[in-house]
């Protein structure tokens, strides 16, 4: 029996079958397109790009980075912009805009030059530059030759690209090369991915320098100087190269008494130096520092109270004389004297002449009450003075206060930078409570003195072998009286060790140890007033010498000789020089 077809049924089946085929075709095409897009996306970027630094001549590279600066000249006549030189040498390169002067300083050299002039001075002696510094469009360019000679910086210039690469002395650089069997070479790219454009096509065996790595890529510099990224598998590491150091003179041997700590005492000279023969024996003192020199005006003029008989007598006893130079504690005068190379060198020339005349072994710098804005100029003065002082066989030391927020007495002292230059740094660890202090207290409690030393060692990195603990040989008698307003009026009087001993004997007073201060303390009534004294004696001196040994400091410096009792020198010497 044959079944009749319903009209139209066959056409609908053909139509459904066609629709399914069309849908499959669309899916196939979409899949193919997606695959093609993925395959296209996975292909390395084949485009090339010209880096921004090649838009002009002689871009300067340091440490795998473009400095955003460009060099001038070439070969021996290469010049680099002042900011680049300062980035390389730090405090070693200083520019004075007012005089167009550039001063280069190292531990043993001071080179002074002016823009546009090949005549210079090296350690105050005439020196001829092969190429002068120049100014182009307001920017100063320094000849590279003296930077290489004094600091040991190296420069490479690629003849093709013109790229200048600078290296610091003692810098380590990882060398590498494109594998020799890399038939297609390698691609240096803008970034650490193959999607970045190509900076340079590298040949097999081409030398490289590696400056870092990131996500399986090296940051490299090619032989032509270009900087970019290279896949790690496209580089074979070579040796680590070290840039040679500059030729330097032997370090200055500041303290020649091997195995002995410095035991310095300051001689406060107000009118003229005392007769050294009448001072008596200062047992163990190996350095005296008379306050002989003082800045008198903004031009750098120095007043001298030096005495040849005084220095001669101590030299005959084997005691060194490190004369003190003070700024007079006058901020305006100091600002002017530190402001220029000319005024700074006026001070330096006088100090060197005085040192030669009076046959000194050292100069002790004591700058106090200085504006914070003069911090850099003080560092520069010390950097300019020290090499010339060493050339004359002079020890250079500087006095610094404990660290505080006081602008004129502490904040202007850059102890880290000063400590890197001078031979010794005296921490004046006294006047915790100063003469006009609103409250009575120790001149230098032991915990406060220790904290003062520790902060400079830890925060400023001054080596203990350079640090000298300043100690007070004086104290203050504090008077507390009712002020009539419900409060207390505090005044003080400075006293020597002998004066305190006499007072205690006259009043039959027995001091007690103050655990907080670490020294003897006494108080007594005088009418409606209370008198308080934190005493400097054998007990406090022994404790201070223990601080010197605890931190392995270079020694101790006492202010001032005139306040000392006769027997205290033996106490200091015995406790300072004993080992450990």
Can you walk through the features of this model?
With 580 residues, this protein is of the alpha/beta class. It has 3 domains: 52-167, Copper Amine Oxidase, Chain A, domain 1 (2-Layer Sandwich); 172-242, SH3 Domains (SH3 type barrels), CATH 2.30.30; 262-474 and 537-577, TIM Barrel, CATH 3.20.20. It contains 13 helices and 34 strands. Helix 6 packs parallel to helix 7 and helix 12 runs parallel beside helix 13 (568-577).
Largest sheet: 8 strands, parallel, barrel
User: What is the CATH C-level name of the largest domain?
Assistant: Alpha Beta
Q: How are the strands of the biggest sheet laid out side by side?
A: 20-21-24-25-26-27-28-34
Q: So, the CATH homologous superfamily of the largest domain? A: Glycosidases
Question: How large is the radius of gyration?
Answer: 37 Å
Strand content: 25-35%
Q: What is the helix content?
A: 25-40%
**Strands, total number:** 34
Number of domains: 3
CATH topology of the largest domain: TIM Barrel
CATH architecture of the largest domain: Alpha-Beta Barrel
Q: Please work out how many helical segments DSSP would assign.
A: 13
Q: How would you describe this structure in keywords?
A:
alpha/beta; 5-stranded antiparallel sheet; disordered N terminus; 34 strands; 8-stranded parallel barrel; single chain; TIM Barrel; 3 domains; 580 residues; Copper Amine Oxidase, Chain A, domain 1; SH3 type barrels
């Amino acid at each position: 029996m044959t079944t009749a077809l319903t009209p139209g049924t066959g056409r609908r089946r053909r139509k459904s079958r066609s629709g399914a085929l069309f849908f499959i075709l669309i899916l196939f095409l979409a899949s193919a397109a997606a695959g093609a897009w993925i395959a296209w996306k996975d292909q390395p970027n084949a485009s090339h790009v010209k880096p921004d630094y090649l838009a002009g001549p002689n871009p300067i590279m340091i440490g795998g980075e473009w400095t955003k600066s460009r060099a001038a000249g070439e070969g021996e006549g290469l010049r680099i912009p002042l900011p680049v030189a300062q980035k390389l040498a730090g405090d070693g390169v200083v520019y004075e805009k007012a005089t167009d002067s550039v001063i280069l300083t190292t531990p043993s050299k001071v080179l002074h030059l002016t823009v546009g002039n090949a005549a210079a001075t090296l350690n105050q002696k005439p020196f001829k530059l092969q190429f002068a510094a120049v100014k182009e469009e307001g920017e100063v360019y320094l000849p590279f030759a003296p930077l290489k000679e004094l600091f040991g910086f190296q420069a490479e210039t690629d003849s093709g690209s013109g790229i200048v690469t600078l290296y610091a002395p003692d810098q380590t650089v990882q060398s590498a090369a494109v594998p020799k069997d890399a038939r297609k070479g390698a691609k240096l790219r803008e970034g650490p991915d193959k999607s970045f454009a190509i900076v340079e096509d590298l040949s097999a065996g081409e030398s490289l320098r590696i400056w870092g790595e990131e996500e399986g890529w090296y940051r490299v510099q090619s032989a032509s100087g270009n900087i970019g990224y290279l896949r790690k598998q496209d580089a074979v590491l070579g040796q680590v190269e070290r840039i040679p150091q500059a030729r330097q003179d032997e370090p200055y041997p500041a303290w020649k008494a091997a195995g002995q700590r410095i035991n310095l005492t300051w001689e406060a000279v107000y009118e003229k130096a005392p007769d050294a023969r009448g001072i008596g024996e200062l047992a163990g003192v190996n350095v005296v520092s008379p306050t002989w020199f003082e800045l008198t005006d903004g031009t750098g003029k120095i007043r001298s109270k030096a005495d040849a008989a005084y220095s001669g007598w101590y030299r005959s006893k084997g005691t060194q004389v490190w004369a003190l130079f003070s700024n007079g504690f006058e901020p305006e005068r100091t600002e002017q004297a530190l402001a220029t190379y000319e005024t700074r060198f006026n001070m330096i020339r006088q100090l060197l002449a005085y040192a030669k005349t009076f046959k000194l072994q050292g100069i002790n710098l004591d700058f106090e009450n200085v504006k914070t804005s003069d911090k850099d100029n003080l560092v520069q003065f010390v950097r300019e003075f020290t090499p010339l002082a060493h050339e004359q066989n002079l020890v250079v030391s500087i006095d610094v206060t404990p660290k505080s927020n006081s602008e004129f007495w502490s904040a202007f002292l850059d102890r880290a930078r000063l400590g890197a230059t001078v031979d010794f740094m005296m921490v004046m660890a006294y006047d915790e409570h100063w003469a006009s202090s609103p409250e009575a207290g120790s001149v230098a409690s032991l915990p406060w003195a220790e904290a003062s030393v520790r902060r400079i060692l830890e925060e400023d990195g001054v080596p203990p072998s350079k640090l000298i603990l300043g100690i007070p040989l004086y104290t203050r008698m504090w008077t507390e009286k009712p002020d009539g307003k419900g409060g207390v009026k505090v005044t003080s009087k400075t006293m020597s060790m002998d004066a305190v001993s006499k007072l205690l004997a006259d009043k039959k007073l027995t001091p007690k140890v103050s655990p907080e201060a670490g020294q003897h303390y006494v108080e007594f009534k005088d009418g409606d007033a209370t008198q308080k004294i934190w005493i400097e004696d054998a007990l406090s001196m022994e404790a201070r010498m223990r601080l010197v040994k605890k931190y392995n400091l270079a020694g101790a410096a006492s202010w001032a000789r005139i306040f000392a009792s006769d027997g205290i020198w033996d106490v200091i010497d015995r406790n300072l020089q004993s080992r450990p």
